[in-house]
Amino acid sequence: MSIFPIVTYDHSGLRTPAEPIPENNDGLPEFIDNLFDTMHQAGGVGLAAPQVGIPLQLFVVDADIMTEEEDGTKHGPGVFINPEVTPVGDEEWDAEEGCLSLPDVREKVTRPYRIKIRYFDREFQVREEEHEGWYARVLQHEFDHLKGVLFIDYLGSFRKRLLRGKLQNIIDGKVETEYLVVAKNADR
Ligand code: NI
Fold first, then answer.
1. Counted domains in the chain
2. Residue 47 has pLDDT above 60, yes or no
């Protein structure tokens, strides 16, 4: 078991579009286990490979703790390789999001309510599912990480301006976390 440090705002790893993963990738099962361990240790409900500085199209999710409380649904742990997410219908909704790469930042984000996701699972079997509500939100948030997108990118300029101080503190490594992080300007 290895725990990776999580890269934080504005580490270049969070802005680098991730590469597709070829089938028959030897190190993949171990990397996936380590990603789960890192996410669980940090208390997150999702973690994408770019958040540990690995630019691959992969994220893991274990969101029951959130979805059960928020909308009473259970999904179990999920591994999403080379995913593609598309909205289904026009319905959108607002909810507050956070991110292990943006400690201390929580903001309301508008997202499609229902999505379709096509991906390869841990056994590299292709799957296609539809999800809605909180689980769909988590999947969209993690999918964004594979494109170099952060949830704060959706905020208006006024909200962004209010966040400047918090973001600078993250860059300077001044935010306390209970998990290992890599800050851009911190002396570590
Ligand atoms: Ni995130």
1. 1
2. yes
Domain residue limits at 90: 6-182
Is residue 187 included in any domain, yes or no? no
Chain mean pLDDT for the chain: 95
Residue that is written with structure tokens 């903001």 in the block: 107
With contact defined as beta carbons under 8 Å apart, do 39 and 4 qualify?
Answer: no
Predicted TM-score (pTM) of the model is 0.96
In a domain, 127, yes or no: yes
At 188 the pLDDT is 46
Q: Which CATH number characterizes residue 23's domain?
A: 3.90.45.10
pLDDT tens, 112-137?
Answer: 999 999 999 999 999 999 999 999 99
Helix (H) or strand (E) holding 40, with range, is: helix 28-42
Catalytic choice (70, 96, 129, 142): 142
Q: Residue 8 has what DSSP assignment?
A: -
Q: How many Å apart are CA 66 and CA 71, to the nearest integer?
A: 8
Q: Is 142 a catalytic residue?
A: yes
49 burial level (CB within 10 Å; 0-12, 13-18, 19+)? buried
Asked whether residue 157 carries a pLDDT value surpassing 90, the answer given is yes
Q: 146: CA distance to ligand 1 center in Å? A: 10
Q: What is the pLDDT of residues 49-59, one digit of tens each?
A: 999 999 999 99
